[in-house]
Amino acid sequence: MATSTKPVIPPADLESFLAHLQSSNRILALLGAGLSASSGLPTFRGAGGLWRNHEATMLATPEAFEADPGLVWQFYSYRRHMALHAKPNKAHYALAELAKKKEGFVTLSQNVDGLSPRAGHPASKLHLLHGSLFEVRCTGFYCDFSEQDNFTDPIVPALAIPTDGHQPEPAASDKTGAEAARSLYAAMNMGNKGWQELDISDASIPLPQIPLRDLPHCPKCKHGLLRPGVVWFGERLPLDTLGAVDDFIETPEKIDLIMVIGTSAKVYPAAGYVDIAREKGARVAVVNMDKSDIPGRGSGGMRPEDWFFEGDAGVIVPEILRSVIGEI
User: What is the reported pLDDT for 187?
Assistant: First the structure.
């Protein structure tokens, strides 16, 4: 007897969401690392949260940079390299198109990988909460040097990815993007018969010690170390970004829809935005691989009028936005 396959998106949910989307004027989107997982970038969440034997979050602090700037720069140089060789997926392009078609659509992204800008997402409607891998700034106390859109890879020769290694075997199953990241490495090196880049996220691969003199230094003051232009744990979030989103939220008009894509949105300020948007009339649409990732803190979880689309954002987002943006 033939068996029917369950659709990726339940038709009734898709129909009701499309009707609401088409009538929505003011929309807020919160984006997280899950958006970029199908582009081959690891999320560094859950079981995939290690880089070598280090908790990725422990490398993302001012204290870690002060203690071992070489190791921290190797971590971020690896992430820059991966992001530059990845491509925006259909979800990035779909959200960029929605921003062009819906005047009242604003996006707050927690991602630092640069894929949304590369997909053509209008800068005026894209606010980066955690900065960018491709911004650098001087750590010198009296120096104010910063640079946007630094795509040099490697940023200094000493941070080049070592070659002539072997790729590790990917896990049988994975939802963090780590397996996709390894596959991306393999694809990047298929044309190079005589050499192969080492996957330095694997702790079994020796990692060279880089002298301080060979790390990126400030071209303005000449002596200060450059650091990645991302917001580290313990640092203040960018006030201009928070202000722009607050201005959107605090206008008298109601908010029609808040989309939470690839993030649990359980911590400040994302959780607060979900709750405030609800108070201003918004319905909530979640796209996430993990059904237990319910956004918000004081909102009591998902409500009957909300939507939870479980699965890969790269597949689901273009489908649920198609009636407004067309085919991607």
Answer: 52
CA distance 284 to 189: 42
Of 270, 247, 263, 272, nearest to 313 by C-alpha is 263
| Integer CA distances (angstroms), 80 to 20, 134, 152, 219, 291, in order | 38, 7, 9, 20, 30
Label residue 9 by pLDDT band (50, 70, 90). confident
Query: Which tokens belong to 141?
Result: 């106390």
3-state secondary structure of 46: helix
Q: Assess contact for 143 and 218: CB atoms under 8 A.
A: yes
Query: Above 80 in pLDDT, residue 247?
Result: yes
233, 57 Cβ separation under 8 angstroms: yes
Residue-wise pLDDT for 106-131, tens only, equals 999 999 999 999 999 999 999 999 99
**8 A C-beta contact, residue 312 and residue 289:** yes
Q: What is the dihedral of CA 272, 60, 80, 211, to 10 degrees?
A: 160
Q: Which pLDDT band, with edges at 50, 70 and 90, does 169 fall under? A: very low
CA pair distance 229, 75, nearest whole angstrom: 14
3-state secondary structure of 217: strand
207 membership: H or E segment, kind and range = none
130 belongs to the catalytic site = yes
Q: What is the DSSP string of 249-266?
A: HHSSSPP-EEEEESS---
Asked if 218 and 224 touch (Cβ cutoff 8 Å), the reply is: yes
Q: Is the pLDDT of residue 47 over 60?
A: no
Residues 6+ away with beta carbon under 8 Å from 52:
200, 201, 202, 203, 207
Q: Give the active site residue among 130, 166, 217, 223.
A: 130
Please spell the DSSP secondary structure of 297-320, one letter per residue: SSS-S--TT-EEEES-HHHHHHHH
